[in-house]
């Protein structure tokens, strides 16, 4: 099994990922709101799926040493966290 090593600090990884998404990837994936796009920070290669794991797995199958950044298309974050109290109040 290959052990992948990060090549960037957390801040640098996030900066590069956000920049690459905005500059190159976003125009290619618009219209797929809600899907996940996994991007290799170094090559710009990408995979898209409904969830993070399938998108990442497919990208890593092609590029085993990829430095992966994920974005949820049309959203500010990949994951959203809600309080159970807020969720139950909305149903009332």
Descriptive notes:
With 92 residues, the chain is an alpha+beta fold. The protein is 42% helix and 15% strand. The protein has 3 helices and 3 strands; from the N terminus they run H-E-E-H-E-H. It has a 3-stranded antiparallel beta sheet with strand order 2-1-3, with helices on both faces. Strand 1 (36-40) and strand 2 (46-49) form a beta hairpin. It is globular, with a radius of gyration of 15 Å. The model has no long low-confidence stretch (mean pLDDT 88).
Short précis:
The chain has helices spanning 10-29, 52-62, 84-91; strands at residues 36-40, 46-49, 68-72. With 92 residues, the protein is of the alpha+beta class.
